[in-house]
């Protein structure tokens, strides 16, 4: 703030008394906001005829113009857009470091980030604090899913450093025809994990072969048999690692009961055992969407869609693909015969289905740990063109684009008034639960979660194959996991 203004205020305070001084302080605070360690004045509104250049960091220039750039350019025709490619981030061993390098070298005004990158860069003071400009512009955050804003602020240590137009969560899909065939009642919103596991056990199963059948199929992106154990435990408010205390507590009666339930499901086949191929792999299909991006559906991710599971936990992509064979064919699903492309035969089986909320725990019936941000748009804290960058963020997260995307996007709109069209299905199942902040905002040492999950997975497989007892496996997980946690804490402390 200008020193002459401050000096003038001080003279007014001496002459006019304390109430004038208080008024001056309020004025000073309202005129200045702190962001990224820099003092920023309130931004000016951008008019349609204003000229300038806006640099946007995005993974692909063509995709940017198709999704955002062309329409935004029409709104501000005299504003020159420049796309800074961040494609190298997706091949980098350290995506955060690569994004930080791009921001320092290229100085984009607006940036497209993953949730992890957003959290890391906000922590480094590299992103512009949006709280003041949101208030100044009366930008309506109340129209967003509350958990999206809560997650953004949680990743920003209480501050809002970005906006996300969409999010991901999961729901429990169920095959109504299969339930009817066996006279089993449909699942309902808010069921406990125990109730869902019991439902899954009521179906006849076939563990192996192309005609395998499971009562419950796990999310297509899960590749580790420990994921289900961890998810059920976190729903109950359990934590297996205390980073601050440096202790592991997996060998407990509460965790043992969860391990036992999941392992019983794996043994019987009522619950699918994740395979290393996860959602991709050979034998699937390729669907082209958007600006030419390819999404792979392998055998695992298509089990429910092909009628080989009574229930499945998965994201909105499955909802969009179910029963839309004609759209898939038109979008470019192909197979190759002697080098000649031809339409692929649909792997889907037609049946009646619907969705309900993912299982919860009665102790925390309104929360889930299965929620994440698809992407985050932020402003570079060093930007000299904040007004234009803010206009772009408003557009990318605005009502009009949300309305358009509700008819075409695979993602869940963060604006609750523009939920995806779901052909009469229970789309609210994806929106009904709040985030489990204890789970989603938990911080573990770098690399520990992955190494521990691998350790637990190996022991689970040993128990399923009856090579060791569950008690023996838990002792191994506890002792070796404690070593992993100690090593990870030591390594992190030395950095």
UniProtKB/TrEMBL annotation:
Cellular location(s): Cell envelope
Domain of life: Bacteria
A Pfam family assignment: SBP_bac_8
Secretion signal span: 1-33
InterPro entries cross-referenced by the UniProt entry: Bact_solute-bd_prot1, SBP
Gene3D superfamilies: Periplasmic binding protein-like II
Chief localization: other
Gene Ontology cellular component terms for the protein in this record: cell envelope
UniProt similarity note: Belongs to the bacterial solute-binding protein 1 family.
Protein name: Extracellular solute-binding protein
Organism the protein comes from: Cohnella luojiensis
């Amino acid at each position: 703030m200008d020193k002459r203004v401050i000096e003038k205020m001080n003279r007014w305070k001496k002459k006019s008394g304390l109430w004038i001084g208080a008024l001056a302080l309020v004025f000073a605070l309202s005129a200045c906001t702190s962001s990224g360690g820099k003092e920023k004045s309130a931004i000016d509104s951008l008019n349609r005829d204003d000229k300038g250049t806006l640099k946007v960091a995005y993974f692909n220039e063509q995709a940017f113009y198709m999704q955002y750039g062309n329409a935004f350019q029409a709104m501000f025709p005299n504003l020159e857009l420049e796309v800074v490619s961040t494609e190298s981030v997706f091949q980098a061993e350290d995506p955060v470091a690569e994004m930080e390098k791009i921001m320092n070298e290229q100085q984009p005004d607006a940036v497209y980030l993953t949730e992890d990158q957003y959290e890391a860069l906000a922590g480094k003071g590299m992103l512009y604090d949006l709280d003041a400009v949101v208030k100044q512009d009366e930008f309506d955050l109340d129209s967003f899913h509350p958990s999206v804003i809560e997650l953004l602020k949680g990743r920003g240590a209480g501050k809002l450093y970005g906006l996300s137009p969409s999010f991901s969560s999961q729901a429990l899909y169920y095959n109504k025809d299969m339930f009817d065939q066996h006279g089993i009642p449909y699942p309902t919103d808010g069921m406990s994990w125990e109730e869902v596991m019991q439902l899954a056990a009521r179906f006849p199963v076939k563990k192996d072969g192309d005609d395998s059948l499971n009562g419950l199929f796990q999310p297509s992106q899960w590749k580790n048999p420990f994921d289900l154990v961890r998810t059920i435990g976190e729903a109950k408010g359990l934590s297996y690692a205390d980073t601050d205390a440096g202790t592991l507590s997996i060998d407990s009666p509460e965790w043992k009961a969860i391990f036992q339930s999941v392992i019983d499901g794996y043994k019987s086949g009522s619950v699918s055992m994740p395979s290393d191929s996860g959602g991709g792999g050979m034998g699937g299909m390729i669907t082209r969407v958007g600006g030419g991006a390819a999404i792979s559906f392998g055998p695992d991710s298509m089990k429910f869609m092909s009628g080989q599971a009574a229930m499945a936990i998965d994201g909105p992509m499955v909802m969009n693909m179910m029963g839309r064979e004609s759209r898939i064919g038109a979008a470019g699903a192909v197979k190759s015969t002697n080098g000649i492309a031809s339409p692929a035969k649909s792997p889907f089986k037609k049946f009646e289905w619907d969705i309900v909320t993912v299982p919860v725990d009665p102790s925390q019936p309104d929360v889930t740990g299965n929620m994440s941000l698809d992407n985050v748009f932020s402003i570079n804290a060093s930007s000299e063109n904040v007004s234009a960058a803010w206009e772009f963020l408003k557009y990318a997260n605005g009502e009009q684009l949300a309305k358009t995307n509700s008819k075409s996007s695979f993602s869940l709109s963060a604006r609750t008034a523009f939920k995806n069209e779901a052909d009469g299905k229970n789309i609210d199942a994806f929106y009904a639960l709040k985030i489990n902040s204890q789970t989603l905002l938990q911080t573990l040492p770098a690399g520990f979660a992955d190494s521990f999950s691998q350790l637990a997975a190996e022991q689970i497989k040993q128990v399923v194959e009856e090579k060791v007892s569950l008690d023996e496996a838990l002792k191994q997980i506890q002792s070796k996991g404690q070593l992993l946690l100690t090593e990870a804490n030591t390594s992190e402390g030395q950095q």
